[in-house]
Amino acid sequence: MVAGANTVGAVAYSNTTAFGGDNAPEHFSSVGTGEFLLGADGAPLAAPQSTDKVDFLAPDGSVTSVFAPFFGTSAAAPVAAAVAALMLQAHPGLTPAQVTGMLEQSAEPAAGSVLATGAGLIWAPGAVQLALGSTNSNAATSGGLFG
Length: 147
What we know:
- With 147 residues, the chain is of the alpha+beta class.
- Helices cover 28% and strands 17% of the residues.
- It is built from 4 helices and 4 strands; from the N terminus they run ββββαααα.
- The protein has helices spanning 73-90, 96-105, 114-117, 124-132, and strands at residues 8-12, 33-38, 44-52, 56-60.
- α1 (73-90) runs parallel beside α4 (124-132) and α2 (96-105) crosses α4 (124-132).
């Protein structure tokens, strides 16, 4: 819920458009809104501060060496972080705000409330193309997360 942090919802990889799905978030994924009742110092705030978060979605349900399969936002968040790392490898000078913007700009639409889906399902190839400075107009709208 922190303003400067990216929040990631989870979509089953099998429910992504790459596999014929609609990119709808998992039933257990965050629905977005929340409230801060305490400040950073732990003192009560004069009034609750609302946040409208999920920034974007990433897939879960992959098989790892530890989990077969691995579901949840605990699986989706590292996928989003890996895409961000690829973007920074492509263009090391990107700011956190630029990375977030490119992830959002290249995301595919997702079924459900915008509070639960944010910008939609991140699309790695499109995000990396944006990081490289690509002007390919199809970068943000075709191919699905996996190409």
